[in-house]
Amino acid sequence: MTYEKPKGIEIYADSNRGIYIPQYFAQSIDRELISNIDVDDLAILESGPEHEHYWETWASILDNAIIKSPDGNFEYSLHQDGDLFLVDYNALSDAEYSELFCDDRD
Prior knowledge:
Layout: E1 9-13, H1 21-28, E2 34-35, H2 39-46, H3 54-64, E3 66-68, E4 75-81, E5 83-87, H4 94-101
Antiparallel strand pairs: 1-5, 2-3, 3-4, 4-5
Helix pairs in contact: 1-2, 2-3
């Protein structure tokens, strides 16, 4: 059986990073590719899980961030379910959607 990389989903961070996924995201994301968030929120995440606003800031970023592909042709949202994914909802196949969200599209 061969595995084909999903077109609408890209893994950004593996779950083995645990509570440090938000910190890793803030440290590694290209600031020019992310929008719809407050840049100061990335500084909160960079400081690590000991920061009192770390988790609420991460929740806000998960809900609001838009990440553009380097070529500018695609826009991704974030989805965390163990691993952190970049998701292009417009490019998800029905099977990818079902697998990612354990639900069928309406």
